[in-house]
Amino acid sequence: MGDWMTVTEPGLCAESNNISQYTSETKMSPSSLYLQQVLCSSIPLSKNVHSFFSAFCTEENIEQSISYLDQELTTFGFPSLYEEPKSKEAKRELNIVAVLNCMNELLVLQRKNLLAQENVETQNLKLGSDMDHLQSCYAKLKEQLETSRREIIGLQERDRQLQCKNRNLHQLLKNEKDEVQKLQNIIASRATQYNHDMKRKEREYNKLKERLHQLVMNKKDKKIAMDVLNYVGRADGKRGSWRTGKTEARNEDEMYKILLNDYEYRQKQILMENAELKKVLQQMKKEMISLLSPQKKKPREREDESTGTVISDVEEDAGELSRESMWDLSCETVREQLTNSIRKQWRILKSHVEKLDNQVSKVHLEGFNDEDVISRQDHEQETEKLELEIQQCKEMIKTQQQLLQQQFATACDDDTTSLLRDCYLLEEKERLKEEWSLFKEQKKNFERERRSFTEAAIRLGLERKAFEEERASWLKQQFLNMTTFDHQNSENVKLFSAFPGSSDQDNLTVHSRPRQKKLHSVSHGSAICTSKMTKSLPASPTSDFCQTRSYVSEHSSVNVLNITPEEMKPNQVGRECSNQTWSVASRPRSQEGCYSGCSLTYTNSHVEKDDLP
Amino acid sequence: MNFSEVFKLSSLLCKFSPDGKYLASCVQYRLVVRDASTLQILQLYTCLDQVQHMEWSADSLFILCAMYKRGLVQVWSLEQPEWHCKIDEGSAGLVASCWSPDGRHILNTTEFHLRITVWSLCTKSVSYIKYPKACLQGITFTRDGRYMALAERRDCKDYVSILVCSDWQLLRHFDTDTQDLAGLEWAPNGCVLAVWDTCLEYKMLLYSLDGRLLSVFCAYEWSLGIKSVAWSPSSQFLAIGSYDGKVRLLNHVTWKMITEFGHPAAVNNPKTVVYKEAKKSPPLALGHLSFPPSRAGACPLTATAESRYEVASVPVSLQTLKPAADRANPRMGVGMLAFSADSYFLATRNDNVPNAIWVWDIQKLRLFVVLEQLSPVRSFQWDPQQPRLALCTGGGKVYLWSPAGCVSVQVPGEGDFLVLSLCWHPSGDSLALLSKDHFCLCFLETKEGTGAAAGLRDGHV
C-alpha cells in the first residue's frame, strides 16, 4: 500500500509528501486493526476480495467508519464529511454533499491514477524492451570485446613468437658472423703459420742450395764447359764492348729514350684523339647553331625575352673566325667557353625537341598506324613468296630423292645389272650428293634472304616512322615560325602547313633561275589576289593545294602577264624571299615548308613586314 | 685445304723457323730441318741423346737442342752444317734452356734453380745469374730483344731484375710486393712489365721499364686468384684469367678494369653465335631417305667419326665439369687465353667447361662466338696474320674459326692421326699438326708449293 503512494504523479506527490508522513504516524486505523484481527483470527481467505473489502463498514460501525473516513480524508486535505457544528454540544451531522464531492474527487483521482499507471506501465514496457535491447547490445559488445581481446592475445602471441624468431635469427647471424670471423682468423693464422713455415723451409732450402752450389760449382767441374768449333760473329756484326760506367750510362739513356718514345707516342695518340673529338664538338656546335638559328630570328618580342643568349650567340658567330685559329692554339682558354656555349645550345635544343615531341605525339598518334600495317603486309607477302619458293625447292629435292630410290630399287632387282651399274651409281651418288649440298646451300641462301628481307622491312618501317616524325616536327617548326612571324596570317599558314605532301611536290620544286626576277615582280602583282583568295578559301585543313594553285593561276591570269602554271611556282617565290629569312626553307625535304613559306611571302610582300631583320 | 704426308716426330718437337723458311722437327735423337714449303729435308743433325727441348734462334740461323737428362745442350748452325757446339752443365744439371733474343747467347737454368748460366756463342765469356726464382714464367724478354726481366728470390722475398740483353748488365733491381711471385710478362711495347702473384692471392702488379710501380690490381681476396695472363698485341689491354671463371681486362691508361667477361655455362645472349660440333647424323632433316654415310663403315673409331658444326639456337647450356674441391690445382677457372694478332678478338677456355672456346669481341667488349666441341679442347692458337683461330681436341680433326664461320676438317691418312697440338707458320699459310709421334702440315691456301709437297716422296726418318 505504501507503493501506491510512491507511484503517484510528482505534482500530487509533492503535495502529499507531508501528508504521507502524517499518515505514517497515524497508524492506528480501524481497518488496519481489523486487518490484524482478521489475520489473527485466521479466517480462511477463500472469500473474495470484494466481500473482504465490503466488510469494512458494517451496520455496527457506520459511525466509526464515517469518522475514520473523515479523519483520513481531512488528513488528505479533503473537506470534512461532517457539517460545521452549530454548537459544541451538538452532534456533528454527516454532510452528504461533502461525501459525494469527496467520492467524486476520489473517483477522479482514481481515474487519473489509473491513467498514470497505464502510462507508467507502457513506459515500463518500453524501458524493458530498451533494457533488453541494451542488454543484447551489451552482450554483443562483450562478445566483440572478448574476440578482439582474444585476437589481441593471438597477435601478441604471434608478435612474441616473431620476436623470438627474430632474436633467434639475430643470434644465428651473430653466431655466423662470429664463425666467419673465427674462420677468417683461423685462415689468417694458418696463413701466417704457413708463411712462417715456408720461410723457415725456404731458408733451409736456400742454405742447402748454397751448399750445393759450393759443392757443385767450386769443384772445378771439368764437365761444365762449352765445346765450340769456332766462335761466331755477333748478330749485329759489331764486337762486344767492355763493361764500363759509360755503357751503364748509355743503357740508362737508352732505357729513358725508349720510355720517352712510348710516352710521346701515347701523347700523340691522345692528341689525335683530342683533335678528333674537338672537331666533332665544333661540328656539332655549328650544326646546332644552324639548326637553332631560325628560332633566333624570331619576332622582336621573343628576342626581348632571350636577349642575353641571343646576343652572346651573335658574338660567338662574329668571333667564329678568330676562334678557328684559337682551337689549335690551346684548349685551356677555349674549353670553358666552348663547353658553356655547347651546353647552352644543347639546353635550347633539348627544350625545343621536347616541345616538338609533345606536339608530335599528340598529332601523329593516328597518322602512321595504317602505313605501318601496310609495310607489314608487304613483308608478309614477300615472306609468303619466299616460303613458296622454299616449298618448291623441297619438292624438287624430294622428287630427286624418289628418283634415286627408284634407281636403287631397280639396281637391287638385277644383280648383274647392279654390278654393271655400280660404278655409274657411285658416280651418280656423288653427283647427287653434290646437288644435295647445293640445294642445302640454296635453302640456306633463301633463309638468309628471307631474314634479310624481314630485317629490311622492319628497318623500312622504322625509317618511315622516323620520317613521319621528322616531317611532323618540321611541320610544327614551320608552323611555329609562321605563327610567331606573322600573327595576322596565322590562319592562312595553318591552312597551308596542314596540307599533306603530294606527288606534285617534285615538279613544284624544280627551279628556273632566269625567271626568278620576273616571278618576283609577278608575285607582287598577284599578291593581293592570293591574299584575298586565302581568305575566301574553305577553312578545312584538307583543302587541296591544286585547287588553290589553279585558283592562283586564274587570278594571276587576270593580270597582263601571261604565266604558265609551271612558271607560276609559288614555292619558288616563297623560296626567294624566305631564303633571307629562314635557312630552313631551303632544306630539300621540307616541301611543305615551302608551301607555307609561299603563302607567307605572298602575304608578306604586300604587307611589307617591318619586323624582317 | 691440303695436307702433306705424315712424318715421324717425338715429344711434340716441331717448330717453324721465325723467318718461316724452315721447319725443324725432332725424332728421338735426330733433328730434321726441312724446307717449310716443299718439306724437303735440308739438314739432318744427330744429337747425343733423345732431344727434350728444341728452339730456333731469333735469326733462324741456329737451333738449340736440349737434353735435360744428360745436362747437355747442342747447338746446330743452318749455314754451316759442320759447325757444332756442345754445352755441358755437368753435375749442376739442367732444367731449362733458351735463346737470348740476339741468337748468340744461351740461357741455361741449372737444377734446383741454383743459377742461370749465360753462354755466349761469340766470346768465351760465361755469365752467371744467381737466385733465379723457380716459377712457371720467370724469364721474359721484350719483343725488341733489348731487355730481359727475371724473377728472383732472395731472403724469402721476391725481386725482379731487368737486364740489358746486349751486355747482360743489370739495369734495374727491385723487390715486388708479392707473397710468391708466379710469373712476369712484358707488354709487347716493352715498356710495362706485368708481375702476378701465386694463385693463393689475386694480385697483379704493373711496373714501368724503369722499375716504378704503375699500378696494383686485385679483383678479390681469399679464394684462388690468377690463372692465366695475356697482353693484347697492341699493348692496350691486359687480360687476366682467374680461378673464378672470369677474364678481367685492364686498360693501359689508368690500369683499371674495363670489363669483366664471365664464363657461365648457359649462353643466353641472342647476339652470340654458338657453334656446336655435332656428330654427322645419317638421317637428314629434309627428306626421309638417307644417303649412306660414306665414311661410317671405313672409320668406326669415334675419334675419326664424321662431325660438323651446327649453329645452336641461343639459350644453350654447355657441358660443365664439376671440379674436385679437395684436390690441388682444381680444373676450374680460365686457364688459357689468347688475343688475335689484330687485337680484335680474345679466345678463352674455362677449364671447367673444357669443351668450349669463348671468342670475345674486344671492340664491342662482348661475347662474340662460342665453339662447343665434342671433346675437351687441347690447344688453340691464333693465326699470326689474321683473325683466324685453329684448335684441336686430341681427335682426328683440326678446327678453324674465323669471323666468317667455322669449319672442322678431318686429317686424312690411314690410321688415326690424333691432333694433340698445332702451330701456325709465321705467314699463316700453313699449320703444323702434331700427334703423339707424327706430324703433318696443313696448307690453307692453294699454292704451287702445296702440290710439290703433296708429290714429295720422303723416306721415313
UniProtKB/TrEMBL annotation, chain A:
Residues annotated as signal peptide: none
Pfam families: ADIP
Entry superkingdom: Eukaryota
Compartments, record wording: Cell junction, Adherens junction; Cytoplasm, Cytoskeleton, Microtubule organizing center, Centrosome, Centriolar satellite
GO biological process terms, semicolon-separated: cell adhesion; intraciliary transport involved in cilium assembly
Coiled-coil features, chain-numbered ranges: 131-218, 376-403
UniProt xrefs under InterPro entries: Adhesion_Centrosome_assoc (IPR052300), Afadin/alpha-actinin-bd (IPR021622)
GO cellular component terms, semicolon-separated: adherens junction; centriolar satellite; ciliary basal body
Keyword Cell division: no
Keywords, alphabetical: Cell adhesion, Cell junction, Coiled coil, Cytoplasm, Cytoskeleton
Stated family: Belongs to the ADIP family.
Protein name (Swiss-Prot/TrEMBL): Afadin- and alpha-actinin-binding protein isoform X3
Annotated organism of origin: Heterocephalus glaber
UniProtKB/TrEMBL annotation, chain B:
Coiled coil: none
UniProt-listed InterPro entries: Centrosome-WD_assoc, WD40/YVTN_repeat-like_dom_sf, WD40_repeat_dom_sf, WD40_rpt
One protein family per Pfam: WD40
Cellular component GO terms, alphabetical: microtubule organizing center; MWP complex
Domain of life of the native organism: Eukaryota
UniProt protein name: WD repeat-containing protein WRAP73
Lineage start: Eukaryota, Metazoa, Chordata, Craniata, Vertebrata
